[in-house]
Amino acid sequence: MKKISFTLNGELRYIYVAPNEGLLEVLRDKMGVKSPKCGCDSGDCGACTVILNGKTVRSCLIFAIEVDGQDILTLEGISKDGLTPLQTALNERNAYQCGYCAPGMILSVTELIKKNPHPSEHEIKESIAGNLCRCTGYKPVIDAVLEVTKKH
Question: What is the pTM for the complete model shown?
Answer without folding.
Answer: 0.94
